[in-house]
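Moderator note: this is an archived Q&A kept for reference. The question asked for a predicted structure of one protein chain; the sequence and the answer are reproduced below.
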Amino acid sequence: MNRFSFGSNRLHVRKHEMSFCRIAVRDWTSFGLVLLISLALSSCISPFLNPPQSVQKGDLVGIWQIDYGRGKERLILNEDGSFQQIYEGLRDDQSSFAFTSRQSWWIEHLDKGYVRLHLPGAKYLALGTNWSGAGCCTDLFTGEGLIVENELILHVRQNSSRQLLLHHLSANVDAGFPIFARGSVYHRIDKP
């Protein structure tokens, strides 16, 4: 009898050890899963930083380009405040054009270090060349809804390498930050 009870106690201990190992493995799996989800969610938060508070018009002068997939757009921001918007359509349904503004571009410094670039008369081409350009946009950084008429408004941001970027406002109120940002961000391709 003692032998049987000793064996069953031993069996009970082994079952307990096995269940402890399963719990430990389950806890590590859960920890890994939570870590993976946390990293994924943190990448959904904007990878862009506010620009330096000292950013001025001279810091934005140059040629900026964005690739929409269906066409490429270039903004040429001149030191005198003039600018040119050039769109090269890559598909049959996208026409090419060049626009030179008679108005000056300007920057707006907002609370919390946000900076917007205003381009009067420029077109919002993120939705294609056939879009009329007036309507409501959402500033993904400040959370504001803006009525934009006959003007292109871009957010001035910087990446982790401290390079300035120009980010589109969103025409979709429910839009989140695009993870890869294609078609949303202008990169400077040439400085004066």
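Archived answer notes: The domain at 57-190 is CATH 2.40.128 (Lipocalin).
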